[in-house]
Amino acid sequence: MNQKNLDLCKGLVKSSYIDQATQATSQYNKLVESLLTQRRLPDQGWSDKVIELFLEQVSMMDSNNFVENIGVGEREGRVFSGLVQKRHYGLSHGIGRSGDINEQQPKAAGSSLIQKLTNYLVLDAMKIAGFESDTIPSCLVLPMATGMTLALTMATLAQQKPQAKYVLWPRIDQKSCLKSIATAGLVPVPIENIVVGDLIKTNMDAIQEKISQLGRENILCIFSTTSCFAPRAPDDIVSISKLCKQENIAHIINNAYGIQDSKIVHNINQSCRQGRVDAFIQSTDKNFMVPVGGAIVASPNKDFIQAIGKNYPGRANGSPILDLFITLLSMGKDIWKTLLDSRKSLLPYFTESLTTLAKEFNERLLDTVSENKISFGITLSNLKTSTPPSLIGSKLFSRSCSGSRVIDLSSNKKNTVANIEFNNYGSHTDHYPPGSYLTIACAIGIEKQEIDIFIQRLRLVLKKELS
Amino acid sequence: MNQKNLDLCKGLVKSSYIDQATQATSQYNKLVESLLTQRRLPDQGWSDKVIELFLEQVSMMDSNNFVENIGVGEREGRVFSGLVQKRHYGLSHGIGRSGDINEQQPKAAGSSLIQKLTNYLVLDAMKIAGFESDTIPSCLVLPMATGMTLALTMATLAQQKPQAKYVLWPRIDQKSCLKSIATAGLVPVPIENIVVGDLIKTNMDAIQEKISQLGRENILCIFSTTSCFAPRAPDDIVSISKLCKQENIAHIINNAYGIQDSKIVHNINQSCRQGRVDAFIQSTDKNFMVPVGGAIVASPNKDFIQAIGKNYPGRANGSPILDLFITLLSMGKDIWKTLLDSRKSLLPYFTESLTTLAKEFNERLLDTVSENKISFGITLSNLKTSTPPSLIGSKLFSRSCSGSRVIDLSSNKKNTVANIEFNNYGSHTDHYPPGSYLTIACAIGIEKQEIDIFIQRLRLVLKKELS
Amino acid sequence: MNQKNLDLCKGLVKSSYIDQATQATSQYNKLVESLLTQRRLPDQGWSDKVIELFLEQVSMMDSNNFVENIGVGEREGRVFSGLVQKRHYGLSHGIGRSGDINEQQPKAAGSSLIQKLTNYLVLDAMKIAGFESDTIPSCLVLPMATGMTLALTMATLAQQKPQAKYVLWPRIDQKSCLKSIATAGLVPVPIENIVVGDLIKTNMDAIQEKISQLGRENILCIFSTTSCFAPRAPDDIVSISKLCKQENIAHIINNAYGIQDSKIVHNINQSCRQGRVDAFIQSTDKNFMVPVGGAIVASPNKDFIQAIGKNYPGRANGSPILDLFITLLSMGKDIWKTLLDSRKSLLPYFTESLTTLAKEFNERLLDTVSENKISFGITLSNLKTSTPPSLIGSKLFSRSCSGSRVIDLSSNKKNTVANIEFNNYGSHTDHYPPGSYLTIACAIGIEKQEIDIFIQRLRLVLKKELS
Amino acid sequence: MNQKNLDLCKGLVKSSYIDQATQATSQYNKLVESLLTQRRLPDQGWSDKVIELFLEQVSMMDSNNFVENIGVGEREGRVFSGLVQKRHYGLSHGIGRSGDINEQQPKAAGSSLIQKLTNYLVLDAMKIAGFESDTIPSCLVLPMATGMTLALTMATLAQQKPQAKYVLWPRIDQKSCLKSIATAGLVPVPIENIVVGDLIKTNMDAIQEKISQLGRENILCIFSTTSCFAPRAPDDIVSISKLCKQENIAHIINNAYGIQDSKIVHNINQSCRQGRVDAFIQSTDKNFMVPVGGAIVASPNKDFIQAIGKNYPGRANGSPILDLFITLLSMGKDIWKTLLDSRKSLLPYFTESLTTLAKEFNERLLDTVSENKISFGITLSNLKTSTPPSLIGSKLFSRSCSGSRVIDLSSNKKNTVANIEFNNYGSHTDHYPPGSYLTIACAIGIEKQEIDIFIQRLRLVLKKELS
């Protein structure tokens, strides 16, 4: 309530009580003031109640919620269902304008405000996670998942170098990466990885060679990947960045869930300082525990971020931004740090538990943890002859363990994705000597108790299926 | 947002858009101002969005929601479950203080404000329904249903006339009425009604006689009933009031769902003007379409209302008051009037439909509609010998028709309630010549379509069970 | 979804995915089954999502939510406002029937189910807190706060011994206790306490003497109090119970927030075993962290609990029961135990912090902690002459510390409550030698961080106001 | 509850009440069954309560909500904030898989089910609006607004005809249309419209000529527009379709808000039957009153719809699909038809009101209503010399009228959009003889009362600004 109405309350409730309430209202207003001026994660997360009050107030700034609003246009933010209106706090105009996804809506000052603030909060959260100021002078939060965002990013690059059709792509067996290149109307050029011990690593020589072969003027960019399933290592982005700088080729990093890994963050900082990085893209859901649907494009180059924003045609859905906004306000700096720290500290616990378990069954943890700090795997060398490797995965799933993946290398399967044929698709390489394996991840939000229960359930499954 | 924060938004969103949003915020503030100053139903109901924003703001005035609150008492309004907190908008201190249910809570200025405003809104809604200003100079909304509220009202009366134990009670066969007398530690004295045509009416002579017999000094009050199931008519409260005035005996009216009936309202006005009425009690759910749990005590005597408030020991649940507050804001004057008018105008439609249906089966509408404007009935004279009357009721209920009641007068049953034995309990009289019947009500909120479907379903039931 | 519909989903979504989902549905069904059969707190609390699904399903069992329902009665559970409906999950019929608050509603099987289950869960939670099976064979959860519930309990007692008007009441300076006696139409007979060291204790001799004086046949009951503000100790209920048994006088214990104190619980067990306890009443909000509005009447005597239920006239609001139901499901056994343990273990931390602080200012912790395990106090002996004691309280409140109370014994004030005059009302005794003091409580739900901040704020206040 | 648990309830609540509740549960199950088997809008909309119960049940089918779920992958649908989880009903896995946005998620059977059902419901709603079965054998609901969806559609077309870079584009001055072509990496070729009377119409000759000039093999498609701001008419899509068929050029129709206009729908049917239409794209928010963020791609060619789905890289946000799902279930067939009919019938009311108003000020309604059935305009010929036309728009906006647009043709402005220079951008043509004007729309969801208030407010504005 504004001061005038608070004063009017004194006609109804004792003056001294209202004075106290007024003071409380100003505690709330100070929280908001601090958000609007500092534009950083609050030190301590806001309560749900405070968040909802703020959202109710902000959404009143959108024209469709004006008490006296009359809409005589073709798009007036009318919402038929009360359930739908409620779940969006009355925000219905989305974000952006026809010209630019970053442009503010005259009809929707509230939505515009949330979009702006979310950008600031994301930047702050990324800095807390280790990104340096020069690495991320600005970012763009898009209401599209990483695949489509990668496509838009490359499409924007393509407008700047229209003749260059090729995208050099160190193989990563995740379909949407490859498809994003095709969606942008470009031609993916796979670079086969090399196997070193248990690790699958970037083949820098092959990249260099391919540049010579195709001609740098025909290459739009190198598309590298950091966070990925073991036994693949994150790409050697520092070397790639240096090469890109030297060859004057753009460099896009798919950093889907890399914000949570301080080593990857460090490497991105290095890459931006020492080489060329045009953009790095991360998933909102995989890093910030929101529902699927958003991505963050960041870049050391502010202008390129702007260009992407301007290349987005029309308005967009504001829901993923709202999710992120609520989440970051709710986490605050404290819990965000705790989540990052907790994931990091559970990693050795998880891999040790798995090492112990693997030993019980004469299997072993793949030796990849030095490089890949999120995903890791154990061998599946001693399966009963009657047990196809994939059965381990489906048995785990039917025991309510989701997210583990079995790579069956027992036969030499071929797959075609985006018109390219791959051997052993899913394993990131044509031939992986250690054979079939099971991968697991230690991702943000996981809890110790989950690890313990997973190990128990995996033990039961292995007991039955290993000879 | 307050003006300062709105201005700060201009650092993030275009100044002109924020100016527009500021204007919208002030539209909202004007709604609130109007509520706080006029304290009447808004002409048009508030949207859910506006209501929720207001509740979020008001609840921030309660200490348990202060951003910086520390609670070191034994009752600090802590709420464990987020679901529970949300459903009460963070309001958890209830209403009242140990001394008086109407007293304001220092810890809960917001809850106190809602209680106060609800009182005003209820008074306004009752005036719109026809109550005159002198009839209801004040009222008390209690978070207890009518039965317990009647008990508290009589207990308060009893403190003023401690030796008087008797309550004269024109028979109304609804258990909680009778029990409320016993709960208050008093002795009910039933007054048998008289049957006139199809109607069951107040026996004024019997009341007069009972007063003489017991002695007015031993009689605490007469407990009359307005809204009731046909074929009972509302009590002749005008005559009772005059008698009470003349005999200096208190008069309590159970007006459970009488607000919706303008004839009853008119009679209460008359009674207050010409006779003695100490209090009349109405249900919140039966009149205002909120969940069960509240009652309104009104009186032409302000002091008595205050005495009841002071007699309530301790705090009370605020939930029924909140329901009423939300509902009245949401209805506004417009819809509240429409609901009253619509019920009134559907009454002839319903009774005509029922008359027609009854004729089809050689039954008839009981001739009570001139007096009882809410409940009415049809005879059940031609049931198959194998069909007990109650079967009609249970068949209707199993066809998802709730609320109809069958009174089976085929045998002469005796029941004991609160230690008093009754003949044909449920029919309000020892002997009702027209025999068994089915009652139905045309209550607030009913829709034409419901009437049509009910008639259809009833026809199907009667077809099978009437000979 | 039921099995048939799950199977139909296979026409839309892959059969194996639906099979997995079916299995998940049955995990949920097993939770429900376990609740319905074991009727105890779940070992681990249910998630909000599971609770809401369950409530949505249960509320579909109430007739007002039947898809095909037609209501033709005077009370059909119609809810005007979507906000109101939502916040009650569509439950609108309240609880109880006219005859008995414990009776089931034919129109509201779902509400009835929740009421029943809540009773079982409360019994289980109380047993976990230490109550023995013989102490609580049954209980009644009422949607009224403790004051009104005490009144109803005594009113029910009074029906069994109508001539006995006196209630012996060891003085406890909390208005609603005293007023509950008056509301029930009874006469409170205060028993002045005795001061022993810093403690204010039950005067057993005075009770005994008063019984002789008034005659046991004229005494309805002794009304004792456990949980209370320091420096008053919980009444010596074991001695009182023995006396009641010996004198054949009823005994009602006001155990408002005593469930959280294992010592009080132990004493209630002892009292029930060795003496006479007719009922003990506890607040739902003070013990279970729900909004104000409910109370639990328990008794070793099942029949008396039933009698109270039957004495409640009419239906009642279901909201406080729903709050408790949600809360207990959400807590589960684990968290409920943790909350009890945590409060207990924070008590020494709090009193030690306070002792240290008091020393800084030449004040001292009142020596009451051996007896009163929830509330405690420090002296206010060295206030500046310009500082009235009450200023400490209001300064704390304006610093967002709620719940501390200052008892100003600097002048000898007289107050009249329920027509009885008291010296130094608020201090539980006519004369308390240690002088003015500040009380604070360590109540369930308090967190260590709150204690630390409170101590800081109190230090700042004392610094200014102590000489 | 399943049958077993319902039966278990009989241990707690009377058997006959539970039987009744079981019957009610089966009424609900029948609604669901009907949805799953008929896959059409329910005849009558579902209540919010039923919708929420269904969503709670369906979301339990997603693995992140399994009671016993353990997530050990990199994306486990964890949701940090309870507010976020609640607003998505626990659905967090989005839609689609890396390979195909239409593919089902093994981890998310519930989300997949909703996506599938939404597709069916949208098809049904479109058929009710007049689309013939052959026009829409299938559709794709994408969680991107129309601009980005148009880009994806053209990018998909481009993969089939990689050498063709040109998109013939009858000028429509709405930025996102033009930009969508550029985003897809294609070259827009504007076709200037012709002015006929007040109408701005498709220049078929110019299109024909441009095809000859550029060569059909170099033209990817014609991009036509139906719903648009007056005085532009919907493009002559029937002629364009015939031409496309004849020239073997693809045809994409931007039908942003055309579902609500039966004439446009009719023309699309005709176009599909008589000519070539590859896809027509419509906004979800502009037609179905949901928040901005979704679009529907439809096509008479099922394979092309599939190709677009497969071209979408990765998962996507499920929120816009959920909004649509809730909305269509809530509307039902009845209200959807009523909304369409009501808009249609308010059009003459609105234009007549405007005609009358215009006359008052010596202005006139532009004569475009015979062709454009949604948007219309009035001339602004008599403005005071001191009044720039745009002032009318901003004055209306500051009077809380949103959506009207002023086209200021008083000077001959030039704008560059997507590197193309336009005269009088916003007016769809280089030169519009009637001069400056104000446009207004009669869009779905508008109410008579809104029209009346708008006319009042416009009158006040014009009074001041017209000479």
Please outline the helices and strands:
The structure is a homotetramer of 467-residue chains.
Chain A lengths: L2 H7 L5 H24 L9 H12 L10 E2 L10 H6 L21 H20 L9 E5 L3 H15 L5 E5 L4 H9 L3 E5 L2 E3 L2 E3 L2 H11 L4 E7 L11 H11 L2 E5 L7 H13 L4 E5 H5 L6 E5 L2 H10 L7 H42 L14 E5 L9 H10 L2 E2 L2 E3 L6 E4 L2 E4 L13 E5 L6 H18 L2
Parallel strand pairs in A: 3-4, 3-7, 7-8, 8-9
Antiparallel strand pairs in A: 2-10, 5-6, 9-10, 11-16, 13-16, 14-15
Helix pairs in contact in A: 1-2, 5-13, 6-7, 6-12, 9-10, 13-15
Explain this structure to me?
The structure is a homotetramer of 467-residue chains. Chain A is an alpha/beta fold. Chain A is 46% helix and 15% strand. Chain A folds into 3 domains: 3-93, Arc Repressor Mutant, subunit A, CATH 1.10.10.2160; 109-330, 3-Layer(aba) Sandwich (Aspartate Aminotransferase, domain 2); 336-465, Aspartate Aminotransferase, domain 1, CATH 3.90.1150.10. The first copy, chain A, contains 15 helices and 16 strands. In chain A, a hairpin with a 2-residue loop joins strand 5 (194-196) and strand 6 (199-201). In chain A, helix 5 packs parallel to helix 13. The model of chain A has no long low-confidence stretch (mean pLDDT 96). Chains B and C meet through helix 3, strand 1, helix 4, helix 6 and helix 7 of B and helix 3, strand 1, helix 4, helix 6 and helix 7 of C.
